[in-house]
Every structure is written in C-alpha cells, then in structure tokens.
Amino acid sequence: MSSTGAKAVPDRRRAILDAAVRVFARQGFHACRVSDIADEAGVAYGLLYHYFPSKEEVLNTLFLERWGVMLQMIREVDAEQIPVREKLGAIASFIIDSYRHDPDMMKVIIVEVTRAANSFGQTHLGQIREAYRMIGTIVTKAQREGVFKPDIDAEFAAMTFYGAIEQVLTGWIFGLLPQGDEAFERAKQMVVETVCGGLEVARAPAA
Amino acid sequence: MSSTGAKAVPDRRRAILDAAVRVFARQGFHACRVSDIADEAGVAYGLLYHYFPSKEEVLNTLFLERWGVMLQMIREVDAEQIPVREKLGAIASFIIDSYRHDPDMMKVIIVEVTRAANSFGQTHLGQIREAYRMIGTIVTKAQREGVFKPDIDAEFAAMTFYGAIEQVLTGWIFGLLPQGDEAFERAKQMVVETVCGGLEVARAPAA
DNA sequence: GTGGATAGATTGACTGGTCAGTCAATGCGT
DNA sequence: ACGCATTGACTGACCAGTCAATCTATCCAC
C-alpha cells in the first residue's frame, strides 16, 4: 500500500501549484513574492526551487496543464458530427463551467497569461493561437456547409467568439457582471445566440 | 509671442509622455525602468519626478488622456439620431482608426490597463465600466425600438461588442492577424456585421 | 531486529542585483 | 538675484534564486 493508497505521502509539488493558483489570483503574478506561495503552501521557501527552476515556471506549468485540457476538448468537439451551434455551445459551456468550478485558476490563466500578451502571453502565443485556429476551422466548415456567411473571415469570427467569452469571464472576475448558476447558463446561450444569430431581430433572407 | 508660437520652449512633460508610450509599448510597464523613459525622452532621470509623482502616474496620465477622448466620442455618437448599426460602426471606426494612427498608444492602453485588470485595470475600473455602460445604453435603445432582440442582456451585448473589437486589436498588436488599411476597413465592417447580423446566413423571421 | 549508509526531501538564512524615488547642486531665463 | 527647470549620483528597500545544513525514509549487512 505504498503507491496510491489514501493518505499517501503529501504531494508537495501539487500543494505548491495549488497554493500558487490562490496567491496569483489574489495578488497577481508580479505583485506576489515567492515566499507568499511557499507560506500559502505551508512549505519552506527553498522547496519551491526543489520542484521548479523558477517562479515563472510555476505559472507556465499551471497554464500548460489547463490549456492542454481545453485544446483537447475543442479537438474532440470539432470531430463530432453536430451542428455548428452545438459545437460552439459546447466550447462556451466548457470554458464557463471551468470558471464555475475553479474561478481562481481561470482568473490566473486569463489575467496572467491569455491577456498578458506582453509577458507570458508571448511565451505561450503558439498555444493560444492553436485555440483560435481550431475554432476558425469549425467556422470554415460551417461556411462550406452554407450555414455561416462566407464573407466574414473565419479567423476573424473565431477571435470574435473567443473574445466575447473571455470578455464575459473578465466581467465576472472583476465584478462587472452578476454571477451565479443562472447567469452562467444564460451566458452560454447568449454568447452563442449573439455570435451565430446576431443581435438584430430575424429578417427575411436576401432575395 | 510667448505663449503658443511655433518652436516655443520644448515641452519636456509632453516629451516624457510620448517617450513613455514608446517604451511601455516596446518593453511593457513592469519590465521597463524609469531610466529607460528618461533616456528615450532625452531628459535627465530626475526630471520625470519633477513632472510626475511616480512611474505609475505617467501611465495613469496617458490612459486618462486617451480614454477620455473615447468616452466623449461614444457620448456624442449615442446622442445622434442614426441607426444602431451606424452608431456601433462609428465606435468601431474610432477605435480602429485610433490604432491605425497610434498603434503604440493603443497597445499600451489595452495591454497595460484595459486587459491588466489586476494592476491598473483595477484603478481605472470605473472609467472602463463607463464605456461598457454607454454602449449598453445604445443597445437598450435599439431593443426598445424593436431593432435588437429583447432577450439578450444589453450589458452582455455591450461586452461582446467591445470584447470583439479589443480581441481584434490584440490580434494585430501581437501579429496574429494581418494588418493594413484594407484589413482595418474590413474589420470595421465585419465586427458590426457579426455582432448585429450574426454569423449565420439570413433566415426567415420566426412565425 | 539493529546499526548505519545513502539518497532524496526539506529548511531558511544569506547574497547579489535591481530599481523607484530622493535631493543637493547646477543651469538658465527674466 | 530670484525662482523654476534640470541634472544624475546616491540610498534604501525589495526579492529571486542559492546553498550548506538538517531531516526522514528506505534498504541492506549481519
């Protein structure tokens, strides 16, 4: 019973990562000290450097861990044989549920990486771009099927869609928008309806 | 001829602000040193502290100067008697033209303030919120006129619209999206068409 | 079982470098 | 000669990362 039994040896590396999420969310990456993370994890200062080569690498690890899960999800959604609306709905649901489940983690990823294109965004630009690219693929397919207008660039549409979701999360993160289960479900519907159906009331098809 | 004549005394304060835009855009607020700004402005280190109480206050000044112009523009657009599409188009045009005219300045505002909600965004949350609020008002009016669907929250729609624009600017800033006069004009049209008309091809109004 | 050897985990005081902000001195226009 | 503009060396604080010392688990010889 030495490997994965209950109450196994405490996983300090995990404890440090979890503590870092809380500290980064509370104080921001630049504003916090490495000792804040160590204290939050209940661990000695030096131990962080036993598991990670630098403070930056802690954030990188958190981001890659989480972003990888999202990319995988988009990949799977894209492969399914369902209408575009459902595909985009699934992506919106996943991201919003991620926030509901772990708001601190999403705050760190968005505020410190995704929207911090100067510092960490630069490092992970490739990963971030990959998400846009895959959403763009979904849009392109819908255009080929005649469901989406052909005269709006797919990559542009992808940025609009993802940008809208991220903007709403940012609104929740900084208390600009009301939160709660109802708001989350409504947001999922509204973001898809806005991007796919538009804000205008339905009008007759062009002659 | 002492006040505003050509070749008046060099305005060091202005020189510092202009230099700060370039330096912040190039290196980021946190990564740059005060001496970088002074050097770029061709001015002694200490002079910056003659005109500004701190490094932060330089950024605050830049942001408030520029953001105020934008708020004023939205206020004027809102007051006009034109269709929603034109109102939103005017806002999109203004922001995109601002980027065309001074990309460094827009980069600084977006990267260091608007999307840095942890540090400076917090300070200026009120100002940022005011922009969302005014766009929301435009949406609400359109809903009352029956032009926009009533079942999408106006504040939500406002964030989607503004978020889409900001996401596209971010795409330009970090080289994810092609730039140029054509791209800029296309973007203006596409952002309005996407948010108002939706990505889906026109369908008949619901029975 | 007991001693003790080995390796990895853990500790936290310390170092070196960085940099925002200060200030006394100097320049210059009026 | 007065006051504002300008200079840049200096200070004090801060903090990421290092490292030698200590602890603990595991295993082997006997």
Description:
2 copies of one chain form a homodimer. The first copy, chain A, is mainly α and 207 residues long. Chain A folds into 2 domains: 53 residues, Arc Repressor Mutant, subunit A (Orthogonal Bundle); 145 residues, Orthogonal Bundle (Tetracycline Repressor, domain 2). In chain A, 70% of the residues lie in helices and 0% in strands. Chain A has 10 helices and no strands. In chain A, α4 runs parallel beside α8, α5 packs antiparallel against α10 and α8 crosses α9. The longest helix of chain A has 25 residues. Chain A is elongated, with a radius of gyration of 20 Å. Chain A starts with 11 loop residues before the first helix and ends in a 10-residue tail after the last helix. The N terminus of chain A is likely disordered. Chain A binds a DNA duplex (30 and 30 nucleotides) through α3.
The CATH superfamily of the largest domain in chain A is: Tetracycline Repressor, domain 2
Q: Kindly identify the CATH topology of the largest domain in chain A.
A: Tetracycline Repressor, domain 2
**Strand fraction of chain A:** under 5%
CA distance, first residue to last residue of chain A? 73 Å
Q: How much helical structure, as a percent, in the residues of chain A?
A: over 70%
